[in-house]
């Protein structure tokens, strides 16, 4: 799944904390219409063609 993700790696806890702190701050008010993918497992599985809603 990591190879199928956009970054081809997992985010570190420091990276995730920094992104969350930024999004909670006033400087993130201009960000609209975009997604911040924290856990790329589902997105990676969709890109890999292995995701299914029904088992």
In terms of topology, how is this protein built?
Layout: H1 13-24, H2 41-48
Describe the fold and architecture:
This protein has helices spanning 13-24, 41-48. With 55 residues, the protein is an all-alpha fold. It has one domain (1-55). It is elongated, with a radius of gyration of 14 Å. The two termini are 18 Å apart.
Number of helices: 2
Count of individual beta strands: 0
* Residues in helices, as a percent range: 25-40%
Give average pLDDT, whole number: 74
Give structural attributes.
single chain, 55 residues, mainly alpha
Brief account:
This protein has 55 residues and is mainly alpha-helical. It is built from two helices and no strands.
């Amino acid at each position: 799944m990591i190879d199928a993700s956009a970054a081809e790696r997992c985010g570190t806890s420091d990276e995730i904390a920094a992104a969350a702190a930024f999004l909670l701050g006033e400087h993130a008010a201009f960000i609209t219409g975009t997604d911040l993918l924290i856990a790329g497992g589902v997105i990676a599985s969709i890109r890999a063609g292995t995701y299914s809603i029904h088992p």
